[in-house]
Amino acid sequence: MTKEEFLKKLSDCVVDMEEDSVVNIVKEYIQAGYDPQEGMLDGLVDGMKRASVLFDEEEYYIPELLVCADAMNNGIEEFRKYLPEAKKDDNQGRIVLAVVQGDTHDIGKDLVKIMLETYGYRVVDVGRDVSSEKIVAAVIEENADMIALSALMTTTMQEMKKVIELAEKKGIRKQVKIIIGGAPVSQNFSNSIGADGYSSSAIGAVRLVETLLKTT
């Protein structure tokens, strides 16, 4: 198969909930000499986006979406075996990563974590549905350089602003960069709440982190 055919097959595995066969497709993709990061982003993540559209259109429901997520995660775990070994360097940057309170959608967060770790950043993942108090406490405890926040629902976006406000209240805002991402989030929203940056993709988040931490 061509690379494009492989990517389509990986995407289809997620949409069609083929949580077992996706691993074999990943192995064949790698054996053909194609890039694992591209396979994750343009194959597996593409499939999850397609599944999310089906969910929005009420063709898929929560049970189907969960199996699609399992298929994507199985594929990502297999791809991780072929990514360069991450050499975590605290001097390069320590990042607290979280999905904000009220939001349990962590697929994007998990992918950002994989990408950041692949590029050598030390990531402190505090999970999903996390309060602003817990996020800021983790920043203080870990002496982090950055907070990366995710939200996938318009109803939870304002939680990002609460994190920024609490960081200011605790007196750490000037010492830590704060970036945001997620489907409903935009650059305009980032500007409006006083975040330091916004990215619409996992690889974009890596580039944003690199740029912001170089300026500190």
Automatic annotation (TrEMBL):
This is Cobalamin-binding protein. Residues 92-216 form the B12-binding domain. SMART domains: B12-binding_2. It comes from the Bacteria. It comes from Acetobacterium tundrae. The keyword Lyase does not apply. Keywords: Cobalt, Metal-binding. InterPro entries: Cbl-bd_cap, Cobalamin-bd, Cobalamin-bd_sf, Met_Synthase/Corrinoid, Meth_synthase_dom. Residues 1-91 form the B12-binding N-terminal domain.
